[in-house]
Amino acid sequence: MKKFSVDLIEDNHAYYFSIDSNDKKEYTVKKKTGILQRKFNDEWISHSHELTSVPEAGKYLEKNVKFKGHKDQTDFSFQPGKIVVENHYVLDFLRNLDVMEWKAIFRANQTRRIIIKRGGKEKKTHFDHFSVLIKVRLKESRHFIEVGEGSVHSSKFNQDGLISRVKEIIENHKHAEKQTITFTDKIPVILSAGDGGILFHEILGHALEADYIFLHRSPISIRDIGQQIMPKNITVMTGDKDDTFFKGMVCDDEGETVKSTVLIDKGVLKNIISDSFYKSLLKIKNDGHSRVEDFTRLPMPRMYALYLKPGDYNPEELITSTPYGIYAREFGEGKIYFDKNIFYFNIRDARLIEKGKLTFPLGNIMVTGDIFEVLNSVDMVANDFRYDKGVSYCFKNGQTLNVRVGQPTVKINNLYVTKDTND
Q1: Which residue of 239, 256, 267, 345 could cross-link 232, Cys pair, CB 3.0 to 4.6 Å?
Q2: Domains along the chain?
């Protein structure tokens, strides 16, 4: 790799407000401003400095760098009183719930970055994100069940939709306690459109990240580029011009843009997810996926988004064609073990499918399987593509970042299912 240097200047404002069933309120604002400087000359040398303001970054930059910076931080108007008024419908609903306890958490984050690469002009990125998380603990239960929604446009949410989802997941969990179903063999699992794409983020997206591939941790190797690794009905993208979620990210955190957004085309692996460092090591063409949580950390290859393109089936056909299986609606966290070629993924709201019909609610379940077997057992892909609800996050090497997923309803065969009780 040639000599390389890049400066990342960051200005971040994070807002948090919560209210619970005891009417306890908490409001915090955190401001973080700093610069991350990285140089590569046979080895990496990195320095980070906390700043009192963005203009202060100028004293760390080379003299020939023209530094303009972002305009002043705009006011989010993220005030507790305003939040309570705007979300009174949801809060009144929660206050009348017959549950052990509940909590509503509202967050807003405003990040402005300037990336200056050796020999290049400064590039500016921005990302705004608003979210609400509803946590409910049922009677005789030790754990909360969660429903969330996010937006990059405003702190106003689909309150009718949130209430409907909370009602559905509570009913599912209440009635699921009476069910004692044991799954002894692999069965089909149908992932609902939108948020269901987070499973592909885990088992496919991470397997395609360049650092894992270079270090031989991924089950996929560089030799698989150009090879069929999934069924022919599968096309996976890392970008979608119609999705405005990452509209302000005009480049990655090294100042690079993605050369191609196609990862898998009709089952054939076309590209992997890389930054410029691993692009050089692996001798590939695509980069633009260097991401860092904040200026105190080090960038690494990370996903922004993962989209599974729609197929030809009506979503109802996936259910009616399933003699026995699972329908998954709300999704939790996943864990992948590349060394064992297996993964585990939590589904917060699931129903049993019997003879092509939805029957018993199952509450929380855990799905697991062999990574390659599951990737090759994606069966039916519907035509009802949706984006997630805006609250998908990714955890990697101690850093947490917003990500985006989208997909139609998808049927996957050969998954093991275990009952994951919420008690």
Answers
A1: 267
A2: 4-171 (3.30.2290.10), 187-419 (no CATH)
